């Protein structure tokens, strides 16, 4: 490697480093703001009382995780399609990093949902469509990681992983709709078609603002974690290439 | 070129291109090859049917002591056993080729890769439907529930098409992976949740004597599933053997 490209790559590393630090600080600030807004700023839900009213505040985290996971899995399917079209390994790393981050945030959705379900529905677990669909989704993506692990060739790993990620994403809406026709008790907060769902509430102005903070905070969290993991995967691959070059 | 198979039959002459009729002939050649090798080796169909019968009997023993009405569990048993027996067959579609070392030869066949996929798909479909034909009377005997009704059969056929269309593709993906036999169910079963739910709900609805309008949306889900995944599998199957 000539000195010129080396110094150029050094500058780009420094650029990435600064971007990452800025993103991490922004994420931390947004999360702190979300905690304040969710616990103190947002008005309590008027039609609920006692434990149920208190528990409703987990909704902001729950919804934030949900949006974060959605963005992550959208990003993963974008990465897999672009990889299949261009065969650029960077996009495969986008898919992998998004899925790993998405699993963590998706598990957050399921966990906060279960914690909220206990006071609201009096059970941790029920076969509700969105609950079923999100749990199955997390399982599908855990299978993706296991599958990648079982393949030795790096390029095959990227190709097969991308194909599986594409199938996985396409099956999510079908899983959701097939689960939806089973009896649902999930409150639909935004279009109000299922207000007889237990634990539902009308959303007010402070609640909407808090929700927007949650959306921003979790999108930032996803970006920060995903880019960090993406860079790590890049270094891993570069190291592997160097190692092969060295031993051959 | 005058080539002959070992039993004196002329080798089918195949070229790429040549319109839909030629394409179907190629698909059929692959399917016939699968059926022939199964007829000689008898390794897939026998295992699948014996496993299915065994699983039904085990479910029968498990539920007989606890469940008041067999109608409550029969739909679940039908679909669970179908899925699990199917995994055994789908593991072999490309796994057997990889084990015998005949996969490169198959890929060298002068035809579109998607013809190989559809040939394999039809063969797997045949094996699974044959297993289901044996399962239904056994379920009747063990659970005393008659599942041989038109809409249940339609759902079984639609569900099986969706199952083998995704399963054949994943069988090709896992054929060269480490721990192939255990990897396929982990990849396949979570994607089968829509088929499974639709199948169980439709079968239950028919058994409860509901009217057609109460369960026709399940047929819609199954059809949509088949169309989406057969199309996507057709599009991506060509890519699988491009690397390594």
User: How would you describe the oligomerization state of the chains in this entry?
Assistant: heterodimer
Helix content of chain A: over 70%
Helix content range of the residues of chain B, please? over 70%
How do the SSEs of chain B run, as a string of H and E?
Answer: HHHHHHHHH
Q: So how many helices of chain B? A: 9
Mean pLDDT across every amino acid position of chain A: 84
Radius of gyration of chain A: 21 Å
- Rg of chain B from C-alpha positions? 19 Å
Would you mind describing this structure in some detail?
The complex is a heterodimer of chains A (248) and B (244). With 248 residues, chain A is mainly α. Chain A has one domain (19-247). Chain A contains seven helices and no strands. Chain A has helices at 3-41, 50-55, 58-86, 89-121, 129-149, 154-180, 205-247. Chain A starts with a helix and ends with a helix. The longest helix of chain B is centred in the middle third of the chain and has 31 residues, at 113-143. Chain B starts with 18 loop residues before the first helix and ends in an 8-residue tail after the last helix. The mean pLDDT of chain B is 86. With 244 residues, chain B is mostly helical. Chain B is globular and about 55 Å long. Chain B has one domain. The interface between A and B is medium-sized, with 30 and 33 residues.
List the keywords.
heterodimer; A: 248 residues; mainly alpha; 7 helices; B: 244 residues; 9 helices; globular
Quick rundown:
With 248 residues, chain A is mostly helical. Chain A is built from seven helices and no strands. The longest helix of chain A is centred in the C-terminal third of the chain and has 43 residues, at 205-247.
């Amino acid at each position: 490697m000539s000195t010129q490209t080396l110094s150029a790559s050094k500058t780009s590393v420094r650029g990435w480093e600064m971007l990452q630090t800025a993103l991490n600080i922004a994420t931390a600030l947004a999360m702190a703001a979300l905690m304040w807004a969710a616990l103190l700023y947002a008005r309590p839900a008027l039609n609920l009382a006692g434990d149920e009213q208190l528990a409703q505040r987990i909704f902001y985290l729950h919804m934030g995780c949900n949006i974060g996971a959605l963005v992550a899995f959208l990003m993963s399917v974008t990465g897999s399609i672009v990889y299949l079209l261009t065969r650029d390994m960077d996009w495969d790393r986008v898919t992998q990093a998004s899925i790993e981050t998405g699993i963590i945030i998706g598990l957050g959705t399921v966990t906060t949902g279960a914690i909220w379900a206990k006071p609201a529905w009096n059970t941790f677990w029920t076969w509700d469509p969105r609950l079923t669909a999100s749990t199955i989704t997390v399982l599908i993506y855990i299978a993706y990681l296991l599958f990648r692990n079982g393949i030795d060739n790096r390029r095959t790993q990227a190709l097969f992983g991308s194909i599986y990620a594409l199938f996985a994403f396409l099956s999510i809406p079908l899983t959701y709709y097939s689960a939806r026709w089973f009896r649902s008790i999930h409150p639909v907060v935004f279009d109000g078609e299922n207000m007889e769902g237990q634990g539902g509430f009308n959303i007010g102005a402070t609640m909407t603002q808090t929700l927007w903070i949650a959306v921003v905070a979790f999108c930032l969290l996803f970006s920060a974690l995903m880019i960090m993991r993406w860079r790590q995967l890049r270094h891993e691959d570069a190291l592997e290439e160097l190692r092969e070059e060295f031993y051959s | 070129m005058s080539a002959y198979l070992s039993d004196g039959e002329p080798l089918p002459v195949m070229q790429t291109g040549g319109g839909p009729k030629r394409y179907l002939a190629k698909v059929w050649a692959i399917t016939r090859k699968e059926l022939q090798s199964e007829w000689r080796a008898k390794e897939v169909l026998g295992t699948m049917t014996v496993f299915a019968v065994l699983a039904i009997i085990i479910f029968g023993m498990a539920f007989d002591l606890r469940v008041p009405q067999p109608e409550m569990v029969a739909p679940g048993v039908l679909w669970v056993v179908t899925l699990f027996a199917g995994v055994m067959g789908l593991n072999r579609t490309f796994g057997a080729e990889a084990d015998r070392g005949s996969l490169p030869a198959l890929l060298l066949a002068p035809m579109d890769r998607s013809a190989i996929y559809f040939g394999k798909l039809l063969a797997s479909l045949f094996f699974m439907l044959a297993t289901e034909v044996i399962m239904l009377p056994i379920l009747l005997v063990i659970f005393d529930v008659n599942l041989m009704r038109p809409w249940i059969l339609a759902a079984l056929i639609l569900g099986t098409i969706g199952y083998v269309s995704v399963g054949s593709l994943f069988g090709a993906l896992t054929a060269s992976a480490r721990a192939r036999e255990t990897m396929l169910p982990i990849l396949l079963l979570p994607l089968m949740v829509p088929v499974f739910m639709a199948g169980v709900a439709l079968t239950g609805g028919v058994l409860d004597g509901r009217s057609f309008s109460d369960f026709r949306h399940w047929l819609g889900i199954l059809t949509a599933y088949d169309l989406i995944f057969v199309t996507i599998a057709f599009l991506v199957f060509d890519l699988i053997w491009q690397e390594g």
